[in-house]
Amino acid sequence: MSKDTDTTVAKAPERPLMLELDSVSLSFNTSRDTFDHGVHRVLDEVSMKVYEGDTLGIIGRNGVGKTTMLRIMAGILAPTAGRISIAPGKTASLLSLGLGFKPELSGRDNALLAAMLQGSSRKQAQAFLEEIKEFSELGDSFEEPVKTYSAGMNARLGFTTALMTHVDILLVDEVLSVGDAHFRGKALAAMQDRITGDQTVVFVSHMADQVKTLCSRVIWLDEGKVKQEGDSVEVVDAYQAYVHRTRQEGIEQQRLKQEQVKKALEQAAG
Amino acid sequence: MSFSQYYFLADAMARMSLRADAKRFFLGYLWWIIEPFLYVAVFYVVFTVILVSRQEDFLVFLMIGKFIYLWFAKAVTQASNSIVLGKGLISKLNIPKTLFPLAVIQESLYKQAAVFFLLFAVLIYNGYGITMNWWYLLPVIAVNYVMILACGYVGATLVCIVRDFFPLISLGMLFMMFMSGVFWNVRDLGSPEKTDLVLTYNPLAFILDAYRQILLYDTPPDITHLLALFLVFLGMLLGISWIMRRTSQFLALKALTA
Lengths: 270, 258
Hints:
The complex is a heterodimer. By secondary structure, chain A is of the alpha/beta class.
């Protein structure tokens, strides 16, 4: 962990440990003409723990490794260094929108396939279909090809089928910004229902306010490292202040550059 | 994921893909049989009109060769690209990577079933009656299917790790077409040693010949050789399935980042 990392770790909760990342790093080879001899480092010695019933938020700018971290937790990718351990018999899975959607097929067919991909048997998946139709509010369009859907209808179908995932550790990646305002509210309420229950959730989002509302603990990732970890309000406020500061610095740098150009032009003209 | 759940998922993926494909074209499911028949028509014109083939009953001879070759070549080529094309799913789910080539090969099996029925109809129409030896078709089709699975899984793994294998596999399929007696008779090479050599070392040539022996000459295939092929390809299939399971996360990284 880097020296500038501010880890305000709260006292470990008295609940069973569900998942642990221990100095996890992930890097991969890219094309030869990139820096670092073609090795791209996504995560760099990240350590964290998830306890039963936790709602852990992960925040950070684009490309800092949030989604990769979820993929490692879901077992999709393996760390190139470090260790990941999940409590015996527990499962972790990503809440995934639009699994295997084929535009030529109906919403019903696509929902059936998505439910099966998430681990349901054909029979269980068929039993979910009416529930999916009702929650997604697609009505008769549920029987129409998905290629005729608007972006909002697509998102509604995607979120509803994803909600069928039943795992011990639910990994959520930016899915609550779906559909129109009405459906977003409904999606958030459904998610809150899960979170206030026993469900253990790891939640990635750009939306700082949403993270504050939903999460008890937050990890702030920056350039593949844990920058800060702790109480959600404290970490999110620090992150927002950092985002504001870097934005201001960017504006200031832009202003200085413009002034330099202006001066150079004046000198050339004078 | 239990084996039955895994198999039914691959089957559902195959059926959905077939349905989506059929909806994409005006002639829909008819393309399953139109396409192989068009291939046969093209080859038939070239070999009877231009090259004047001396093979007896060349049309049915060619149909058997071409239909079996097309099944093998298309299924293996498409399966080889299947993990790479499935990266959308791979990025979201921790699923067995064998699911992708299996779904593609299952899809080809459904299409091939329709082609077989039509081939049998053409054979019967041309006076080739159903005999007891037709029972041998069952083990021949089974070995043919295991061979496709083994080659498809190997291709899918190689292409996922290094994309450059894909054009090589396509080229390899063209090579197999010329080497396996699709439009020439392996038993008509002028020397029995040459025939033996091809039948022993080219499994596709052996399988094509086995279909022809049963359907055209009412002769059972060499069961010992068929069993040997089955064991070799089953071993290869089990081996590559084990490797794919052990390297599942490595394959996911390759599919997502290459």
